[in-house]
Structure formats: C-alpha cells, structure tokens
Amino acid sequence: MFSIIIPTHDRPLLLTRTLESLIAQTCQDFKVVIVSDTAGYLPPYNQLNQLAGRFDYVLRCSGKPGPAASRNLGLAIADSEYILFLDDDDTYRPDHLARLKARLQRDKPELLFHDFQIQNEDRTVFPPALLPGGQKVSIADVTQDSVYVRNRIPNSCVAYRRDVLEGVRNETDLIIYEDWDFLLAALHGRRLVHHPLDGVVIHKSAATAPENMRRGNSRDDQIVDVMLQLYRKHPAPNMATRLARQALMGSAGVVLELAYF
C-alpha cells in the first residue's frame, strides 16, 4: 500500500525514533526507503531488523546535499500504490497508517492531505524531553487554489498516488520550499482532497538550536525571491488566485503587476 521515503542527515538517534514509530504501526502494509547523504554513523540495525524484507537503506554519495536529492533517489526506488514522505525527526501515531489506508481505499484519491500534531521538545538529551506547547493543527481550510498562494501543508502530511508522480521530482537547486514546488508540480491537473486525520507528529526543537541552523531554516532573506520563482513556474489557475498572490506580496512590500504571475 505505502512506500515511505525518509531522507536523513547525521541524526541517527532521531531516525531511530522515527523507525520505532513505524514498527509500532497497527497497519504494517508498507515499505521504507531510507536515504542517507552521510556515512558518519552506522545504520540503526536493531530497528531495521524488525523491518526485514521491507526496507531499503541507501547511502547517497553523489549529488547535492539536502533532502531534495535524497527524496528523488527514494522516488526512483519506491514502488507502492501510495508514496509518503517522512522527515527523520518526525513520527506517526500507532494507528496513523491504518486510518490513512482505510480512507484511501474508499475512492483512491490522487492527492490526499491531512492534519497533524506539533510536539515541542528539548533535544539536548536523549530521548528528547517533551516541552509544553504541543498542539493539534487543522488545515481543513486549505484549498486547491490557496496552495498556489502559500503552502501550509507539511511534506509529511500528503499521500501521493504513485501514478501522479510520474515525471515529478524535487528541485535540488531551491534553497527553500522545494516541498512546495514538488506539491504544485504534482497538483497540475489533479484534485487535492482533505481528510481530518492527525496521526503525523511534527517534532520541533528551539528555533536557535544547532540542528535548526542549517540549510534553508535560516534563509529568511530568500523567502520572497523563491516565492516569486515558484509563482512564475506554477501560474495561478484563476484571477482570484492571482489577486491573492498580489495581496500577499503587497503585504511584504513587493508591488507586482498581475501579468507578472
């Protein structure tokens, strides 16, 4: 039913926790593709042994660093009916895949997105110490058109039917928002469906923690430029969406003619 693609980089303890959440699933109808872009640690053999015959652990030694290239390699391997992406520091609640499978089997949607939970934690210790402030997040108000304006759907909260992803790949040259670009590319001509499932747990540590000061997380100066790049690449589907893009850019002090996007 599912191929779960996990890109990972130098976070073996957090990856172990992620895999343990998969081992605990009440639905075991899945394969796992783990793509590591560093050889600095041993794979979590104890957890992988519990997934024997249902995992690929790939060491990626070429291409640009970062999750985009790793996700692309995972896509080349994944062969299940639905493709899921999961970050190496996030987890599933034990019944997540069972509930997701039940919904997908009803009418086989092309792209399904769902709600999620946020768990704040202190990663200076292991296992990470839970902090107050966790919450359930509903994104039921996200629409097909609103995704063309800004993206509020976490990458781990989309189920892609595999045929939708033929020819769709992650853009490795983007500093940020490659997951948004990927979603928009898959969405062309497709229908996006919401389901009120919140079995994905997105674990967050302090914004100033060392693990957060890498790659795109500290590139706020690139936000407007990359958004404009995506607007040009993925034209708005209607006038209302074009106006919404114009209004959002205007709130950031950027004045654009409608013809620009």
From TrEMBL:
<feature type="domain" description="Glycosyltransferase 2-like">
    <location>
        <begin position="3"/>
        <end position="165"/>
    </location>
</feature>
<dbReference type="GO" id="GO:0016740">
    <property type="term" value="F:transferase activity"/>
</dbReference>
<dbReference type="Pfam" id="PF00535">
    <property type="entry name" value="Glycos_transf_2"/>
</dbReference>
<keyword id="KW-0808">Transferase</keyword>
<dbReference type="InterPro" id="IPR001173">
    <property type="entry name" value="Glyco_trans_2-like"/>
</dbReference>
<dbReference type="InterPro" id="IPR050834">
    <property type="entry name" value="Glycosyltransf_2"/>
</dbReference>
<protein>
    <submittedName>
        <fullName>Glycosyltransferase</fullName>
    </submittedName>
</protein>
<dbReference type="InterPro" id="IPR029044">
    <property type="entry name" value="Nucleotide-diphossugar_trans"/>
</dbReference>
